[in-house]
Automatic annotation (TrEMBL):
Pfam families per the UniProt record, alphabetical: Glyco_transf_9 (PF01075)
GO cellular component terms, semicolon-separated: cytosol
Originating species: marine metagenome
Alphabetized GO MF terms: ADP-heptose-lipopolysaccharide heptosyltransferase activity
Record keyword Ribosomal protein present: no
Endpoints of the signal sequence: none
Name by which UniProt lists this protein: Uncharacterized protein
InterPro entries: Glyco_trans_9, LPS_LOS_Heptosyltrfase
Length: 189
């Protein structure tokens, strides 16, 4: 079985999709997984042994080029397309792919809007983004898998980090790293 995962951004969400990806592989162990993401996030997925082929787009890809990418991916004859973004960009690509079953994220946009704008929380107490991503493929999973997420750091990245730590005098010291940041105003600290 040949499966295409689509998630364009951002760091945390891409890493969280790897849990659903691993759950799907437990269910369909011989699956060939392709993953479509933005160029700047590709390093998060490089080296991931669960992914057989990584497809990348530039952030500035035009609608016309998205259609061409969708046409190209259509020729790959996927058995399943899993759109973990459900953005305009991912819909353009997804809708060009005629083969296979399509599954896509149903974002709780209204609940999120009420939470951010009116501070009214209508989410269930046990809501998590990880569960939301698994809900996309729930009809395919025979069990309630919730695999761990995965992030692979290349040897080159490890060496660069060691060099940076050494240059700053922190190589053999214990430290905690916190990187507060977000692309949306309401997600910032």
């Amino acid at each position: 079985m040949k499966i295409l995962f689509i998630r364009f951004s951002s760091i945390g969400d891409i890493v969280l999709t790897t849990s659903a990806l691993r759950s799907l592989i437990k269910e369909i162990p011989n699956a060939k997984i392709h993953y479509l993401t933005l160029e700047e996030y590709a390093p998060l997925l490089e080296g991931n042994s669960s992914i057989d082929r990584l497809h990348v787009l530039e952030r500035s890809t035009s609608v016309y080029k998205l259609i061409l990418v969708g046409n190209y991916l259509n020729n790959c004859n996927f058995d399943m397309v899993v759109d973990m973004h459900d953005s305009l960009r991912s819909k353009i690509v997804r809708n060009r792919i005629k083969s296979g079953s399509h599954f896509f994220l149903k974002k709780p946009r209204w609940k999120r809007f009420k939470l951010f704008e009116f501070h009214q929380n209508d989410f269930k107490n046990d809501f998590s983004q990880l569960k939301l991503f698994h809900s996309v493929i729930k009809d395919v999973l025979s069990q309630k898998y919730h695999s761990s997420t995965s992030l692979f750091v290349s040897e080159n990245e490890k060496e660069e980090a060691k060099l940076l730590l050494s240059e700053n005098g922190t190589k053999d010291k214990k430290y905690l790293v916190c990187i507060p940041g977000a692309g949306w105003r309401n997600k910032t600290w």
